[in-house]
């Protein structure tokens, strides 16, 4: 069985969540949510560096174990009142349910950009032709009603398989996710541009009741109840039989290694740090979060380890 935790994190720095690499533009847009795979990567890193003193290839093995025993929803921005899940409405893309924002209002409040240049690690100098603009989710925003500056938060769910042990360390999911007294969720770093200080989040609270709007059916695997009236809240693997209103994108994983491949990491362990975000895996077409999907009433989605869904 699985233990579900609904969690709120507070951003301590901006976050950049990129798309598949593309050429021809100096602007790197950010996603407006945090995919589940980013949490898998952050928890893999934090777990490995707690269990092993000087890890190299151990990241890959711990990552495989986390993949089998954790599942992550996508996490969405939360202003303290409204969860800003996107929805493809008849009028266009909107965010939130109770307090709705159109795309312009959402971007004005929560999205910023900064011009950066890549630094050569050997010389410490800027690389030629590396000037680029990075979009990011702001760590603070101005509340239009009160005028107060507030911390941006994100909310979502993590499931942990009960009885999971890592190298004889028992993983306890209760008011956090603990190895001994060490809480894996206390502080995480995720997303891109971490060398510029991006991506730090701190645990704010574990919610006592299910607050994140995802209806799960917990068995040997986790199924998500389909609802024709509500938008999907993660990527759904595309199938020609699906009727939907929204958009499709080519989605693939980016990381240090391909977690789906047994022999994906070169025997030279130093490659681990050189491959940041360069390895692409599992590229396929997916219906994007916020899309409205029409299914038969008895259909459910199966939640994958990285937060994506599919119909099986």
Beta-strand proportion: 35-45%
Output the radius of gyration: 19 Å
Which class best fits the helix and strand makeup? mainly beta
Query: Largest sheet, described in full?
Result: 7 strands, antiparallel
Mean pLDDT: 85
Q: Helical amount among residues, as a percent range?
A: 10-25%
Shape label: globular
Helix count equals: 4
Uncertain segments: 264-273
What is the domain total for the residues? 1
Query: How many beta-strand elements?
Result: 28
Report how far apart the termini are. Answer: 20 Å
Task: Characterize the structure shown.
The chain is mostly beta strands. The protein has one domain (2-310). Helices cover 13% and strands 41% of the residues. The protein is built from 4 helices and 28 strands. The protein has helices spanning 36-51, 58-69, 103-110, 271-274, and strands spanning 2-11, 27-28, 33-34, 70-72, 75-78, 86-89, 92-95, 101-102, 111-119, 126-137, 140-142, 149-151, 153-161, 165-166, 169-173, 177-179, 182-183, 187-189, 200-207, 216-218, 222-225, 236-237, 243-245, 248-255, 279-287, 292-294, 300-303, 309-310. Helix 1 (36-51) packs across helix 2. The protein is globular and about 55 Å long. Residues 264-273 have low confidence and may be disordered.
Short description:
The chain is mostly beta strands and 312 residues long. It has four helices and 28 strands.
Protein topology:
Blueprint: E1 2-11, E2 27-28, E3 33-34, H1 36-51, H2 58-69, E4 70-72, E5 75-78, E6 86-89, E7 92-95, E8 101-102, H3 103-110, E9 111-119, E10 126-137, E11 140-142, E12 149-151, E13 153-161, E14 165-166, E15 169-173, E16 177-179, E17 182-183, E18 187-189, E19 200-207, E20 216-218, E21 222-225, E22 236-237, E23 243-245, E24 248-255, H4 271-274, E25 279-287, E26 292-294, E27 300-303, E28 309-310
Parallel strand pairs: 2-10
Antiparallel strand pairs: 1-13, 1-19, 3-5, 4-13, 5-13, 6-7, 7-8, 9-10, 11-12, 14-15, 15-16, 16-17, 18-19, 20-21, 21-27, 22-25, 23-26, 24-25, 27-28
Helix pairs in contact: 1-2
């Amino acid at each position: 069985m699985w233990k579900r935790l609904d969690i709120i994190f507070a951003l301590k720095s901006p976050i950049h969540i990129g798309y598949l690499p593309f050429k021809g533009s100096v602007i790197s847009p950010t996603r407006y949510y945090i995919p589940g795979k980013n949490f898998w990567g952050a928890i893999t890193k934090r777990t490995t560096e707690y269990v092993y003193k000087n890890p190299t290839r151990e990241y890959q093995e711990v990552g495989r174990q986390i993949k089998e025993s954790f599942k992550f929803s996508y996490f969405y921005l939360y202003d303290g009142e409204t969860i800003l899940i996107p929805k493809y409405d008849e009028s266009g893309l909107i965010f939130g349910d109770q307090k709705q924002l159109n795309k312009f209002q959402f971007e004005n409040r929560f999205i910023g950009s900064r011009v950066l240049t890549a630094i050569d690690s050997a010389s410490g100098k800027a690389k030629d032709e590396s000037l680029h603009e990075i979009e990011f989710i702001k760590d603070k925003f101005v509340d239009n009603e009160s005028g107060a500056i507030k911390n941006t938060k994100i909310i979502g769910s993590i499931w942990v398989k009960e009885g999971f042990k890592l190298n004889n360390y028992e993983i306890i999911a209760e008011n956090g996710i603990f190895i001994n007294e060490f809480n894996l969720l206390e502080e995480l770093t995720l997303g891109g541009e971490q060398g510029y200080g991006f991506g730090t989040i701190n645990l704010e609270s574990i919610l006592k009741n299910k607050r994140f709007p995802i209806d799960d059916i917990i068995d040997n695997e986790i199924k998500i109840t389909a609802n024709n009236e509500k938008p999907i809240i993660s990527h759904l693997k595309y199938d020609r039989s699906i009727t939907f209103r929204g958009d499709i994108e080519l989605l693939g994983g980016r990381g240090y290694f391909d977690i789906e491949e047994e022999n994906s990491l070169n025997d030279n362990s130093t490659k681990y740090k050189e491959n940041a975000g360069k390895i692409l895996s599992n590229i396929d077409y997916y219906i994007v979060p916020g899309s409205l999907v029409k299914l038969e009433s008895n259909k459910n989605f199966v939640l994958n380890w990285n937060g994506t869904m599919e119909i099986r």
